Amino acid sequence: DKCSLPSDNDSKEHNHLISSDTLIINLDHGDPTVYESFWSKMGEKCTLVIKGNDLMSYMSDMSRLCWFLEPELEEAIKSLHRVVGNAVVEDRYVVVGTGSTQLYQAVLYALTAPGGGDPVKVVCAAPYYSQYQAETDLLCSGLFKWGGDASAYDKDGAYIEVVTSPNNPDGHIREAVVKSRRGEGKVLYDLAYYWPQYTPITRPADFDIMYFTFSKSTGHAGSRIGWALVKDEEIARKMTRFIELSSIGVSKDSQIRAAKIMGTICDNYQDFESGNSESFFEFAHQLMAKRWKSLREVVEGSEAFSLPKYPKEYCLFHGEYTEAYPAYAWLKSSEGIEDCEKYLREHCKIVGRSGRRFGADPSFVRVSMLSREEAFEQFLKRLLSIKGIKNQN
Ligand code: PMP
Questions:
Q1: What residue's CA is closest to ligand 1, atom 5?
Q2: Are residues 233 and 92 in the same domain?
Q3: Residue 325 and residue 252 share a domain
Q4: Does residue 44 sit within a domain?
Q5: Ligand 1: residues within 6 Å at CB?
Q6: 1 alpha carbon to ligand 1 midpoint, in Å?
Q7: Which atom of ligand 1 has the smallest separation from the CA of 29?
Q8: Residue 184 has what pLDDT?
Q9: Which stretches are transmembrane (predicted)?
Q10: Residues 314 and 349 in one domain
Q11: 12 with 109, same domain?
């Protein structure tokens, strides 16, 4: 989400998420600082010492397809998915990336190189994650090109559909929407938010190409670690080649840290089952549930906004019916407020991201639910102060 960070001119104002009742609260990007409180409680359990002579080589395991993937990270990723039950890891190649942002580009390359004809269209059903378009067209590639809303796509020939599930910005579970006439479409699953704090885990995802990120699973966005689970060897090989040429691999310091954090979650989970420890996903789920409950109460008492509804489903991880508590609130303004982002900014000094950026209507705004507690409380307080807006007009 970095591209959406405020420009230099704005940054003084946005510097601190919140300073007082009158200052701007920036909830534009999905910075997952909400989880800091959990990790601070873990203390030394997650501390890692890296000596001066550690991790100096470019190489990790040259006998493996993804030669820059640290074996202990691969093991930790597989254990984490087994504990959570959100993805099939057997018979899959793991490709590590500098965030899932790099993996997105690696997949597009792998599915279209060596090219030749017209650039392959990349589509995603609106509302779609605001960065896909810019990332796709950044280098004006001859291999692929952004094609917009997948629901409106009806051309013949090769295309790539991105399925984000649960979706950013609106939190809904999604499936591919383009009807491929001759099997010329490839589908890529961005499962950044398919974790039990955000959505019921109804089955282990079993797609040919899917990726996850450390940023939204545990909240460690700063480590810039993402991983793809890929069935086809040739695709995994091409993705590896892309990462080799764009960054000669992925920071080992970060990989080792990610392995340590994921390992702590798995260990804690076993202790939690025996009643001895706190589970990260339980903690995160309860925290998101609490935030959503408070937000829904405020919005229900308001005439200005509404929120999407999500069905209760049986979550295999929690072992009960649970609701979705998405990472973003996809607020819709009621009639009479045409530009929801502008309205929030002007009336509450809350910066969200306009529906327009997601290929949707400006009556929508996306607001992050992943901020630190203080910013979230201010957000609610300010929404409350404008709840009777229709009557005031
Ligand atoms: N995909 C989706 C749907 C996202 O929301 C994000 C982060 N906002 C990303 C990918 C990129 O995440 P990262 O590069 O931090 O892994």
A1: 168
A2: yes
A3: no
A4: no
A5: 1, 30, 99-101, 129, 164, 168, 190, 192, 213, 215, 221, 226
A6: 7
A7: 8
A8: 87
A9: none
A10: yes
A11: no
Give 22 or 118, the one with higher predicted confidence. Answer: 118
Q: How far is ligand 1, taken at its centre, from the CA of residue 127, in Å?
A: 15
Q: What is the pLDDT of residue 36?
A: 97
The whole-angstrom separation of Cα 160 and Cα 110 is: 11
Residues 80 and 136 in one domain: yes
Q: What is the chain's mean pLDDT, rounded? A: 92
Same domain, 10 and 126: no
Atom of ligand 1 nearest to the CA of 224: 15
Is there a single domain that holds both residue 236 and residue 352? no
Candidate from 77, 102, 128, 129 with most ligand 1 atoms within 8 A of CB, to mutate? 129
pLDDT digits (tens, 9 = 90+) for 164-213: 999 999 999 999 999 866 778 999 999 999 999 999 999 999 999 999 99
- Residue 310 carries which side chain, given as an amino acid letter? Y
| 101 pLDDT higher than 60 | yes
Task: Give the phi and the psi of residue 189 in degrees, each rounded to 5.
Answer: -105, 115
Q: What pLDDT is stored for residue 179 in this prediction? A: 83
CATH of the domain at 217: 3.40.640.10
Instruction: Residue 187: give the domain boundaries.
Output: 56-269
Q: Is the pTM of this model over 0.80?
A: yes
The crossing angle, in degrees rounded to 10, of helices 280-300 and 252-273 is: 90
Q: Whose CA is nearest to atom 4 of ligand 1?
A: 192
Is 13 a residue whose pLDDT tops 70?
no
Indicate the number of domains in the chain.
2
- What is the mean predicted confidence (pLDDT) over 117-133? 97
